[in-house]
């Protein structure tokens, strides 16, 4: 059957992974409405800021079996002194021709934008889903974790992409999590925790953004998030937050730490195939009654508080809150292999590696 490459077909872009992957691969899609918002040049602040992008789907026999998006994150290039385009949402059947056509389209886009390198997966930035899964296949993953079968890295490598920037995700069995003594963060030391609740959601999330930007400033893939970008990514989180799990740490009124931890949505998304329909309310009620898994989307400590035991104390408090709320397992999204401090925290907690991920790059010169 002849392969067809289409540009700009949002419906096919969403459908492609469901046709490309077997249910046993464990792929879970973001909500269809979120995919549509991400690709809307009038709604996504990344595009409103003037970053060019394009996306394609590969069709065989009339069915979409692969997809990719390519864009230039100009703010990242300026900050890090690079000339790179980024690719994301590369999901493809084990089909060599489809993979080549998709990756060639992204490479051609990068060249027309004057870029010298193509790097990914970024869905769509380093503070969203990032990486290509290279090990830990078949494990049950958590919200915001990339999931792909083993043929995806093989297809990338067959098309001249090389892996770099290794990362890991983690899982913690809360029944066996290590209890450790952490630095007390009590009012007598000037510290206080502010839970992220509905009534204070906007103010707390802005504080979380400021701490995130400060704490991640030295990360080589990070670009500070604007208020609009952060709101775009996190705005709908309010509807699924468990206020017992997320908080901002204040020191004499200044935000110095944050943990954003939410109930894992992957079971609900898998049951509804990431679509809102007539049965969604039923599945949501079942999910609320049975939720026992949570995931840390990110945690951060202000740079002047690094190395003082603050993060250990925040993680210990979060683990205690999860146990009190009767959660059983905790996922932690990607930590770079070069982040020795965070890896030590995972070891102290007793968290086990769940997935291995890498970024992939190709020289276009």
Automatic annotation (TrEMBL):
It comes from the Bacteria. SUPFAM superfamilies: Acyl-CoA N-acyltransferases (Nat). GO terms for molecular function: acyltransferase activity, transferring groups other than amino-acyl groups. Keywords: Transferase. Residues 210-365 form the N-acetyltransferase domain. This is N-acetyltransferase. It comes from Sphingomonas glacialis. The lineage of its organism: Bacteria, Pseudomonadati, Pseudomonadota, Alphaproteobacteria, Sphingomonadales.
């Amino acid at each position: 059957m002849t392969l067809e490459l289409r540009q700009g077909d949002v419906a096919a872009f969403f459908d492609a992974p469901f046709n490309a992957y077997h249910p046993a691969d464990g792929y879970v899609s973001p909500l269809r409405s979120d995919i549509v918002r991400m690709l809307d040049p009038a709604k996504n602040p990344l595009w409103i800021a003037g970053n060019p992008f394009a996306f394609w789907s590969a069709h065989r026999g009339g069915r979409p079996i692969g997809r990719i998006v390519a864009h230039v994150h100009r703010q990242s290039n300026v900050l890090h002194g690079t000339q790179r385009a980024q690719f994301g949402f590369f999901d493809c059947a084990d089909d060599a021709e489809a993979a080549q056509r998709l990756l060639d389209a992204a490479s051609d886009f990068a060249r027309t934008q004057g870029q010298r390198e193509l790097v990914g997966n970024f869905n769509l930035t380093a503070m969203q889903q990032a990486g290509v899964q290279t090990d830990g296949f078949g494990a049950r993953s958590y919200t915001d974790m990339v999931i792909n079968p083993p043929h995806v890295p093989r297809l990338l490598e067959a098309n001249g992409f090389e892996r770099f920037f290794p990362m890991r995700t983690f899982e913690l069995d809360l029944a066996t999590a290590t209890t450790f003594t952490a630095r007390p963060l009590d009012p007598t030391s000037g510290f206080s925790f502010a839970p992220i609740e509905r009534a204070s959601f906007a103010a707390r999330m802005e504080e979380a953004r400021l701490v995130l930007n400060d704490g991640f400033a030295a990360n080589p893939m990070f670009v500070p998030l604007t208020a609009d970008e952060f709101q775009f990514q996190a705005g709908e989180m309010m509807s699924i937050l468990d206020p017992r799990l997320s908080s901002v740490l204040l020191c004499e009124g200044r935000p110095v730490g944050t943990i954003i931890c939410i109930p894992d949505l992957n079971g609900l998304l898998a049951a509804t195939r990431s679509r809102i329909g007539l049965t969604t309310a039923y599945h949501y009620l079942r999910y609320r009654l049975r939720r026992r898994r949570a995931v840390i989307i990110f945690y951060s400590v202000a740079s002047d508080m690094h190395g003082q035991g603050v993060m250990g104390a925040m993680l210990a408090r979060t683990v205690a809150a999860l146990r009190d709320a009767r959660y059983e397992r905790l996922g932690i999204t990607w930590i770079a292999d070069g982040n020795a401090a965070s890896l030590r925290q995972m070891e102290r907690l007793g968290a086990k590696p769940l997935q291995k991920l890498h970024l992939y790059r190709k020289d276009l010169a």
